[in-house]
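Ligand: flavin-adenine dinucleotide. Inputs:
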Amino acid sequence: MARGGGPLSPPSISSRVPSSSSSSSSARPHVHAAASSPGLNNNSGSNNNSGRNAPPPPPSHPRSRSLSTSTSAFASKDASAPLSGPTGPRVCVLGGGFGGLYTALKLEALAWPAGSRPRVTLIDKGERFVFKPLLYELISGTASAEEVAPTFSRLLAPYRTSFVRGAVEEVVPAKGGGGAKGGSSSSSSSSSSAAAAAGGTVRLVGGNELEYDWLVLALGADTVTYGVPGVRENCLPFATFDDATRLNVALRSLEKKKSDSSSSPCVVVVVGGGYAGVELAAVVAERLKVSSPSSRVELVTAARGILDGAPAGQHAAAEAKLAAAGVVVKANAAVARVDSEGGGGEGEKDLSKKTIALARVVASSSSSESSSASSSAPAAIAADLVLWTAGVGPVGGASSPVDNASAPSLPFPRSGRGAVVVEPTLRVKGFPGVFALGDVAAAEEEEEEKEVGAGGATATKKKKKKKPLPPTAQVAFQQADYVAWNVWASINDRPLLPFRYQHLGEMMSLGAKEGAVTLPFALPEGVGSALGRLPVLGDVLSAAGVRVAEPDGVTIEGPLAGALRRASYWYRQPTGEQRVAVGAEWLAAVSGSLSGGGRRKKSE
Ligand SMILES: Cc1cc2nc3c(=O)[nH]c(=O)nc-3n(C[C@H](O)[C@H](O)[C@H](O)COP(=O)(O)OP(=O)(O)OC[C@H]3O[C@@H](n4cnc5c(N)ncnc54)[C@H](O)[C@@H]3O)c2cc1C
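Predicted complex:
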């Protein structure tokens, strides 16, 4: 799985679009109150950008259950500042993660011809944007909740975008087809934009409704259990801010319990050998090693080893870290069921004794157990805490009936694995007014495949094949640039751009301070090993944790990689204001540790 949001910048879409229309620097966001929506205060506890910039309550709307994005919803506190026009098209962005929030912010930054600036409403069921790659820092206590998961109300306070807190229950496109017309990748002229938009309605749980002209779907993914008995009831997932909070509570209870008693050592099992499983096992093992030294962390994977398909450098760094942290890897083992002794209330239940029944996966003859710490899978493991990272699937996809019964009903075409089918421009197939991105979308990239000649060894020609893009943050935030641009183009009747993914490398957290970063390019054959053999440089590179694994390229591991990863995530923060806030936290942490204070665990 491609990961990271590597050290390099993605191509700025503004460089590909007409300069008159796309420069983000030309459109510094105005300091506006993010708006209240009519009916909001009376319904379902929805939250808006209330707080210090909140505008006076808007007049009540005739349709009390509607959150129509009317003029009043976009009233500015600063009457002299230019408003998004009261008649601008209504863009609804569903989901405020890497896809949705970054699209909304990019829409703000684009330059809009007079009268076409849209009124953007971001809807999310949670109150926080979650920078998921940093969730591990909440477990190690090396980042605060506000760094990892700032509230939308704080993030969006200086911007025009309106935030509505609510769970999407259903999207109902207006009769007459697939939504708004306009903006075409073909040269055929299409009637311009909002006036011609068919749009539709978003229904929220609790009955509120919002009308839209253009829709952006960015609802992300849910944890998938594959219907394995007992997983939903007895395992903790690790994909949201709430999951991280719950895990912190469980670990604290475990730490307390073990320091209180002389009972048997505690066992934490992490299920899943992908990046999330490895990163979680590393951070939990590192934490327990200090707080509860006799405890044991085991990682169970149905694959033949950890990080199947990852670059060699990432693999080697992860194996070394897990071995050093004492994590036992059990490969070729699928979880068949998870039983619990039960009892206890919320929280205590997480820590009641579990039994994990394992089924051995019969591996192909070429497979081997790759970790030095791995062992044959036993039939069952007894554990205090079971953490599930073994799967994710698009919201509302095939796994929803089992894993998320309250997933929204979306009338859009789905791929085999349940992701929303999109065209290369990220427009939903058959719905010209709807765009989808991130984990919920089935976007693809073209990959060149070497065709081997009849004689065997020689590659004669290359053919192109399509492969699905991975569900990663770096895909989602790159797509956000394109979706914002394509909404702009649709509204202004300009050609749409096909999405081009640029791989930015791989990054992984390995405990509180360490990591592994694989750069997004390979060195010419032989150069890496030659560098490593140079007398002084070779030693310097090795001391800095730089490892060159041909043909996968350069991987940096250890504390330097950990620092690079954090710096890169600082750069990727959604707004300038958030970058300043995170930078200030870091400075405080560094000066605290220099003066011997250490970091306070604000996340707990
Ligand atoms: C622990 C962890 C670590 C990760 N680390 C990395 C990494 O290092 N690098 C990397 O590239 N990727 C990483 N990923 C993957 C990455 O976070 C996702 O691919 C990315 O967040 C996808 O962006 P998105 O906008 O599609 O979805 P999300 O960021 O998940 O956002 C979806 C939003 O939709 C909201 N939502 C969902 N359903 C509803 C509903 N019914 N109504 C209203 N709102 C709803 C959610 O609350 C959420 O805010 C990690 C993921 C996890 C879980």
